[in-house]
Each structure stands twice: as structure tokens, then as C-alpha cells.
Design goal:
With about 650 residues, the chain is of the alpha+beta class. The protein folds into 5 domains: about 5-155, no CATH class; about 160-230, no CATH class; about 260-360, Nucleotidyltransferase, domain 5; about 375-545 and about 565-575, no CATH class; about 595-650, no CATH class. It contains 26 helices and 12 strands. A hairpin with a 2-residue loop joins β4 and β5 (about 70-75).
């Protein structure tokens, strides 16, 4: 028998030659070295060569039979079609797996430890049940691994190269799937939609990713694979946080590069879980004189005092890298914690930067003024509470709404009650007017509900009806309609996007003037007479003086005598004047802020110069004296060229 080299003797750098286009001959390391030492005329011992099978030998013939268990059995040519890796060897009259044989000859190491010598060394010739043996070999780990290695060898690519390409392909698929996840998070965040439902499967996030997977195979593979990458809550939160940081960095960089100076707007809010948070917004002006208001976050407030709120605002500015010395404006609500003269948040920040002017929102100031006026007059306060509860009583029940709409309304048309929303500043007069316009219809509907229902709604309807049958209620509604009509018109004007601060102050002054004009005996007598006429038409009780009640000694130690009135009109006139005086005082106080006067002067200087008007020297002097770091002569020169710059910036935008 010719000597056959062992597996470890075969080297990957063996010399290879073509043998008839079918067989590649490999020589061992020892033979290769011997050939180098031998003379050129020396020939290679063919018997020691290991042959690599390039194409399997699959002849279509009748194969020799072999006696097995007393029966003659033979290999069949049809087996080649079912198992194309079979190779017939005429010398041994057996079949080999040419893939496993070649891999073994090439010396590739396999991870599979099981050896099947019948298919790669000695040959398979047991024809009793060959198909089951062929199938078992084809499904074996060794054959599958050998197939991969032989394919790589034929293509001329190393295993590490194939693994690298596979890794890059997986990275591309994962990157594409991750982009879909990121854009989904961005869409939900931009639209203010929740990520989860009652559970994960019903959430907007997973359903939207599932929908988008129909157009993206990589996402579909992600959803139906064994691993749920990029879909966990932690990944969603991390992506949202990265987007948040990117947006904040963009805002802060623009503030630093395009403006330098900025203002802070802050307001406290409480979320549904009861956590108190501070909403902070930056306001700044770019190089084109366009103003921007950018929300920069909600920050939890553990200490709601003036000191604690101030610390939160200063900490936010510090983390953003914004110098408090560049802070030029503050905007908060009018509560004592924020706007207190000595120890409020605005005052504390001005102790660090005196040029940070505090101005309270004009529309909010007007709303607070009317709230104070209504709260100081019990008759008006009870009237607004009645309107709010009465409208909700009908609107919260379709049955009661049908009863109200079923009452003939005569010339009033369709009965519609407008809700009194505390957070909407321009609906008070509309809501009160809707009740006055449908007064008789409401009373009839309440009577029907009180007579036909047998639950709590009947009791409430009876209580509302008794209140509406009082003359004081009707007169209070008339007073509220008159005063709130003036206030609501002012609130609408104050919400104009292009409103200037000087115009806002002018609206406040005009409102105060209008309210003062209503403070006269003639105006009240006209209002009172209208209420008396309405009471007669509606068959409501006529005005009467209320019973004098002695003030408790706990509230009035001097035991002073109660005020005496000669008529009901005189009594209600006093209530009317108290309401008006409180409204006038509140409007005057809230529109006479020190910061507002200074801001109006700055606005007058800039807008006047931008429109080509001669600036007021006194206003310029006041502004220069306040800031301290401005050169008045240089400022005057810049104001002269402002109209040209302003026109250029406007045309470019």
C-alpha cells in the first residue's frame, strides 16, 4: 500500500496543480522540501500526493453489487440527484463526501469533534440503508461546518473576512432598525403622545414601530427575532434624553452666539402626580431683531419658598453655562413669592444682577385684578360661583341638557350656556350674558327637573331655582356683565401677538378710565332700574333691604353700629361702588410696576429710532443711567443708523 501522509502533514501552502480540470494535487511539507533539494529532473512520487476533489465523480451507470446479509445490493445513480455532495470512487467502489474529504485534506480545523471516517477517509459502501445514512451525515454538524469552510475556500475569502462582512451586514440592519426606533420616539415626543398604553403591547410606541415594520425588513426582523433590541423602556428614555440634550445644546449655543443677553420666564406648575415643578423659558433676540421664546425644561422644586425657587433658576443658568450677569429680564406671576418687593424671587435675582428688569405679564395682571375685585365683593363672588356651577349642572348631563333645550325660548333662539372657565381670561362676560339671556328658560328647566326627578339632581335644581328667584342674584349678574364686559375686551386686546409694552400699559390706563367712568350714581341707577324691570318681567321678588346682622364681638371688639340704609337701592349702590373701587385699585396697582415704566422707556427709544423718530433725550438718559455700562454718545450714533439696519433685517427675513 502506498504511504498516505497524515492530516497534520498537509500544509496550506502546499503546491497545487491542475489535474485534468477535475483534481487538484497537494503535496506535503516534507515532499515540498524534498523537491527543492532534488534536481530539476527528479519527479514527484504520485503515490504520496493527496488529491483534492474539485468536482465530484457522479457517473450514470450500473454500479457493482455487493453481498450484504445474503442479498446483493448496489449504489444507485439516482442518489446523486438527492445528495449532490456524493463522490464515487472506482478504486474502492465506495462513495465519499467530497466536501468533507477536501476540508480534511486542506487541513482546516473543525469545531465538531465527531469524526465520520466512512465519508472522508475509508469510503462508504454499506448499501443496506444508504439513504438514512446519507441524510444523517448531511444533517451532521461536521458536514455543515465543512460546507461553510469549503465555500469560503472556493471563493478565495478567509473566514475572518466572511465574519467581518457578516458583522458589517448586521450592523447595517441594526442601524436601519435603530433609525426607525429613533424617529418613532421623535414623532411621539413632538406630538406629545404617550409611549405606553395600559400595557406595552397596546402602547403607541410598539404599535407605530409595528406599522413601520411593514415597509422595513430590518425592523420586521427586529420585532420577530429572539432579541428585543432598542425596544425597552430604558432605550426609549435614553433616546428621548439624548434628543432633549441635543435641543438644549442648540438653544443655548444660539443664545450665546447670536444674542449674549437673555431674559428668564418662569412659572410653577403641578403635574398629575402632585409633584411641584418650575417651568423655565428663555427669551432672547437674534441678529435680525426677531424675538424667540424657548422652553428649556421642567425642574422639580423641593422648596417652594422664594429662596428655593431662586436657587433652582440660578442652578439652571449655571448648568447651561449662561452668565447671570447677562440676564436682562425676568417674567413671573404676581404672587408674593415671585414678585415680592423685598424678598421675592425677582428681588433676590436683582441683588445679583440689578439690570435684570422684572415685568409681570400684562394679560395676567388684568386677570388677577378682576379676580381680586370679584373676591372682595361677596355678591359678585357668589354670582360667579353660581354661573360656573349652573352651567356645569346642565352640560354634565345630556338628560338635563335636553330638558333645557326643550323649553320654548321665544326670541332667544337655541338655548346655549357658555362655561365659565377660570383659566380663560376673556369668557366671563360671555358666560354671564348667556345666563342672563336664558334666565326664564333656565328657571323653567330647573322647575321641571325639581318636579320630575327623584335623585340628587332634583335637590340641586331646587337650590339653583331659589337662588335665581332672588333679586340680588339678578342685580349681581347685571353688574358682572357690565364690569366684566370692559375687562374681557381689554384681555382680548392684551393677547395680541404684536402688542408692545407701551400699548399694553395704555390699555391698562384706558381700562381704569372706563371703570372710573362707571362709578356714578346715574350709572348705578340705570343699572338698578334695568334689574327691577327684569325682575317684574320674570316674576321675581322685588329688591328689599337685608336684615341687619350684628357683627360678632370676635370680629369687632368696638361693637360699632352697623351701617344703616334708607332703601334697597342705597344698599346695593354701596356693593356696586365696592366692586368698582376694588377693580380700579387693582388695575392701577398692577399696571404701575417699576420695571414696566423702565421697559416702556427702553421700548420707546428703540421703536422710535427704528421708525425714524427723534429719540427722547430724557428717556435715553434714564436708560443709560440704569444700565451704567452704556456710552450715551455712542448709543445716540447707533440709534441714528438703526432705521437702515432695521429695514435691511426686515427685508432679509
Amino acid at each position: 500500500m502506498p504511504h498516505r501522509p497524515t492530516l497534520h502533514q498537509v500544509s496550506a501552502n502546499a503546491c497545487m496543480s491542475i489535474n485534468g480540470g477535475k483534481i487538484l494535487s497537494y503535496r506535503s511539507n516534507e515532499q515540498h522540501a524534498a523537491s527543492e533539494e532534488a534536481s530539476p529532473s527528479s519527479s514527484l512520487d504520485v503515490s504520496t500526493e493527496r488529491k483534492v476533489i474539485v468536482e465530484p465523480n457522479q457517473p450514470l451507470k450500473t454500479f457493482p453489487a455487493k453481498a450484504i446479509s445474503g442479498n446483493l445490493r448496489r449504489f444507485k445513480a439516482e442518489y446523486f440527484k438527492q445528495y449532490p455532495w456524493l463522490h464515487w470512487d472506482d478504486a474502492t467502489e465506495a462513495v465519499f463526501c467530497y466536501v468533507c474529504t477536501n476540508v480534511k485534506i486542506l487541513g482546516h480545523r473543525l469545531l465538531s469533534g465527531k469524526d465520520e471516517a466512512a465519508f472522508d477517509t475509508t469510503g462508504f459502501c454499506n448499501w443496506k440503508q444508504p439513504l438514512s445514512d446519507f441524510k444523517r451525515h448531511e444533517l451532521s454538524t461536521k458536514h455543515r461546518e465543512s460546507t461553510i469552510k469549503w465555500t469560503h475556500h472556493v471563493k478565495g475569502q478567509a473566514v475572518n473576512t466572511q465574519l467581518s462582512e457578516q458583522t458589517q451586514s448586521e450592523q447595517r440592519r441594526n442601524r436601519q432598525a435603530l433609525q426607525v426606533v429613533v424617529t418613532t420616539v421623535r414623532f411621539l415626543g413632538r406630538q406629545g403622545l404617550s409611549f405606553r398604553g395600559h400595557d406595552d403591547a397596546d402602547g403607541n410606541f410598539r404599535n407605530l414601530v409595528q406599522l413601520r415594520s411593514e415597509d422595513c425588513s430590518s425592523v420586521k426582523a427586529l420585532l420577530h427575532g429572539g432579541r428585543r433590541c432598542y425596544m425597552s423602556h430604558d432605550v426609549q428614555n435614553e433616546i428621548a434624553q439624548l434628543m432633549c440634550h441635543n435641543i438644549l445644546r442648540s438653544i443655548i449655543s444660539r443664545v450665546k452666539l447670536e444674542s449674549v443677553y437673555f431674559a428668564v420666564i418662569a412659572d410653577e406648575t403641578t403635574d398629575t402626580s402632585g409633584v411641584q415643578q418650575l417651568c423655565i423659558t428663555l427669551r432672547w433676540v437674534d441678529a435680525n431683531l426677531q424675538s424667540h421664546e424657548d422652553f428649556v425644561g421642567l425642574h422639580e422644586v423641593s422648596d417652594a419658598s422664594a429662596k428655593g425657587t431662586t436657587d433652582v433658576i440660578l442652578d439652571v443658568l449655571l448648568r447651561f453655562g449662561l452668565d447671570v450677569r447677562n440676564l436682562r429680564g425676568q417674567g413671573y406671576d404676581g404672587c408674593s413669592v415671585m414678585a415680592g418687593r423685598d424678598n421675592g424671587v425677582a428681588a433676590r435675582i436683582r441683588q445679583q444682577e440689578k439690570r435684570a428688569v422684572f415685568v409681570h405679564c400684562s394679560a395676567h395682571s388684568m386677570n388677577l385684578a378682576v379676580q381680586e375685585a370679584a373676591a372682595s365683593t361677596p355678591m359678585i363672588r357668589d354670582c360667579l360661583s353660581l354661573v360656573h356651577d349652573l352651567v356645569l349642572f346642565f352640560r354634565n348631563s345630556p338628560t338635563r341638557t335636553r330638558v333645557l333645550q326643550g323649553v320654548p325660548s321665544g326670541e332667544c333662539g337655541i338655548t346655549t350656556l357658555k362655561p365659565l372657565c377660570p383659566t380663560r381670561w376673556s369668557v366671563r362676560a360671555v358666560s354671564v350674558s348667556s345666563v342672563l339671556r336664558n334666565y326664564s328658560v333656565i328657571m323653567e328647566a330647573l322647575e321641571e327637573i325639581a318636579a320630575t326627578k327623584h335623585d340628587d339632581s332634583a335637590t340641586r335644581a331646587r337650590g339653583f331655582l331659589r337662588t335665581l328667584e332672588r333679586f340680588e342674584t339678578l342685580l349681581a349678574l347685571r353688574q358682572a356683565q357690565l364690569i366684566f364686559g370692559i375687562i374681557d375686551d381689554s384681555n382680548v386686546a392684551l393677547q395680541c401677538p404684536s402688542l408692545t409694552l407701551s400699548s399694553a400699559k395704555s390699555i391698562g390706563d384706558a381700562t381704569e378710565k372706563q371703570l372710573t367712568g362707571k362709578r356714578s350714581d346715574d350709572k348705578f341707577h340705570e343699572l338698578f332700574s334695568t334689574a327691577v324691570t327684569d325682575a317684574e318681567r320674570l316674576d321675581i321678588g322685588q329688591p328689599q333691604l337685608p336684615r341687619n346682622r350684628r357683627v360678632s364681638s370676635r370680629l369687632d371688639e368696638s361693637r360699632s353700629a352697623a351701617a344703616q340704609f334708607n332703601s334697597a337701592e342705597e344698599y346695593y349702590r354701596k356693593q356696586y361702588y365696592e366692586f368698582l373701587d376694588s377693580a380700579i385699585s387693582s388695575v392701577n396697582r398692577r399696571f404701575s410696576q417699576p420695571g414696566m415704566d423702565l421697559a416702556c422707556k427702553m421700548e420707546s427709544v428703540l421703536l422710535g429710532a427704528a421708525t425714524g423718530k427723534e429719540p427722547d433725550v430724557d428717556d435715553i438718559t434714564s436708560v443709560v443711567d440704569f444700565y451704567g455700562d452704556l456710552d450715551q454718545e455712542r448709543l445716540m450714533r447707533q440709534l441714528e443708523i438703526l432705521p437702515v439696519s432695521f429695514c435691511i433685517n426686515i427685508s432679509s427675513t
